[in-house]
Amino acid sequence: MAGTFMGGAPYGDETVALLDRVQTKDDFHAKRWRCLSHPTRAFETLSPVSILEIGILNARDLAEREAGFMRADTTSDAYVQVVLDDQELEKCITPVARGKKQPMWLYHCEVDILAPMSMLRLQVFDDQPTEKVEIGFVDICVGDIPYDQPIEGWFELRFQDNFQSTSVDRYLHHCEMREETVSQRELEEEMASLLIDPFPVGTDGSNASPDPNEKIVMKKQYFASSKERAMDAFQACVVSTADRAEEYGFQALSASLKEGTKDKYRSNNGELYVSLKLKNVVSSSDSLFALALDAPPPVNRGIRETTELKRTPDLQQCADEVWEVKVQLLDDALWCCLYGFKYLISWRCWPLSLLYLIGLLLCCYKSYWWWAIIPALLSVSLVINSFPEQRKKMTRGGLNADLTEEGFKHTAAWRNSDEIHTFVGRLLTEDMKARLDNPRVNSYKLRAFAAQCIRDGVPTVSLSELRLALMAAPFVVDADNVPTFALHEHVWVDGRDRGVITELTEVPERITVELQPTLLIPEKRAKVVHQRQLTKRGESIGNLPKWATDLVMSSAMVQIYPPLEGLRLGLVPAISAVSDILTWKNSKVATILLVVLIVISAVFTWAGLMHVLNSEQKGNMSHSQEVVILVLRSLDNSIAAIVTIVLFLCQAWWMTHFSALMKIMQRRGHKLLI
């Protein structure tokens, strides 16, 4: 029966045949060389090299839905959607098992596989009346499935909160540790931490007598915080025992154990029984060509927490990650470089500025002196950076100086009203937790106030006196509104480190904070700080209504988190590694770099001097010396030529062949993870 297009034009068998012809892919054997010449086009246009047979049989212990006002039954109406390389396969979806605590589908489907490292996801949904709710998921790498060897068994359904980062990262992370193992490890770590004697040591070296009431409170806090994790581990043991009982024929005992476990105490979101079999539909030689193909880049679903137990990302977490990038990228890198450059051109240290001026002028006079002078100047800067006090004088100012007496002096030494104005503004907001009354009108008053705080590069008052003066200033409000902190409250320390308050005393200078793991420092550590060094993390973002938070989470966060994660994971470690070398925290690499710079400078200085002497007195050098000098003098031109050649060769068709062959050799030795 003929139909019509949306525009009204008729279509029939000829049109359908034309559509099939357009969508039919080329035979892999006939066009296998396309994998080497145009890998991307090959993935898009060639027929599959293998077929993955998927059997989704049944599930057990699925997470139940929350009881609603109109529905008391919490049993989920589960079904499974097959996703390949983040693309949902419309023909691979199981029927809905309605009202089944142990749903059974006995579903079978086949998936075409072309890229050997494609990622498969089995996503379990709950088909609720108003929406489809994700229950859990399983990530599988096709490259870890052997050919023509059936694989079947129970696969752990991961918590949907862990559906973050990319499929590759999720899969590798889950291969290291299962969800239930994570819960068990967290429980053991918490119990081990509480086995440490929490009572203070007396002056005579003996433990102080514990207060019984304090002991009872501590136990209550421990059991309140660890009950859910303990039940997670307990349920894992119960489920394992129930499975063994079922294997040995004790059906009643198995059913009783499974029924007795509470859904809210779980170490995963259930298990899925799956059978897999990968069949090759081309010859073994043809399948080697397919090793050169890459699957589409995986979709980044947001930030994966550095801790093992992950949380759903929220506005506060996003702000924390942005602040971490800001501290590493701006305060410790960009501002330091700008202040170092300003230090030289403003002649703050005239011998150093004169040295750089003469060196750069010599480079302008004779280009071959670049390789002798630039490494020497860099080595001088590296040596100066080994002295912390001098380094801070060169790289710290109003934008990034510490809010301490030392930071105040470093800022004053610039003899610049803008710098001291910026420092005082930071002191007012970050340290004193105060603000200007009518900032638009009183901003100039704060600038005039700050300008009077220094004379000839030296502060006229101490930092504590500056705080008292600001508190008495008529244009400052809320200066005496000292924030109060509570135990276990989340705070910023010096505006840089995230922490949790673990101990409060009557003395504001003795607040113990446990600094949280970060991307650069993955372990927790304790620190005793002053009260004014703390800022409540919850105050950085105002409270939003739940509907607004949900709206942001579902739309804006999806756009914000992936690029933020890429920036954080890509730049922060690299910048920190370079900073550690330049500040001599990594003294070994810094020493090696210094030696290399000195050697380069010495070799090219010798070559330059020999060239000058040879031009005045010809014939004093051997042939080998002349060759070495010629090579060294031409090194900059040689490097420029190499860079040009590389730029042109990278896009050459034979380089594509070479890259494809390297991928084939690498992936041919891929080891199975299952």
From TrEMBL:
Keyword Coiled coil among UniProt keywords: no
PROSITE patterns xrefs: C2
Protein's name in the database: C2 domain-containing protein
Cited SMART domains: C2
Record-annotated C2 domain positions: 33-155
Alphabetical keyword list: Membrane, Transmembrane, Transmembrane helix
Entry's transmembrane regions: 368-387, 589-613, 639-661
Organism encoding this protein: Symbiodinium pilosum (Dinoflagellate)
Keyword DNA damage applies: no
InterPro entries: C2_dom, C2_domain_sf
